[in-house]
Amino acid sequence: MRWSIISRAVLTLAGVVLVGYLLSRGVYVGSNTILDSASGLVVYEKRCHYLYLNGIRDIRMNAGLNEEDTQRGFCPLLGN
Question: What is the helix (H) or strand (E) element at residue 29, kind and residue range?
Fold first, then answer.
């Protein structure tokens, strides 16, 4: 099947718009669990990492008293 120039242009434009939309919302790229004792109370905290157009942002998520409970929480696929 041969694609016409207009079909390829429309498909390319749709792909660019989709990637731009996802990066403006923030795409999940990973997470880590850290030990936070700044408040005097030792708690574990999960940080989700999202890729945006202007870089990677960390969003703090679930805090728990042990590491296993904190890791069970999930990060949404889109940041906003």
Answer: strand 27-36
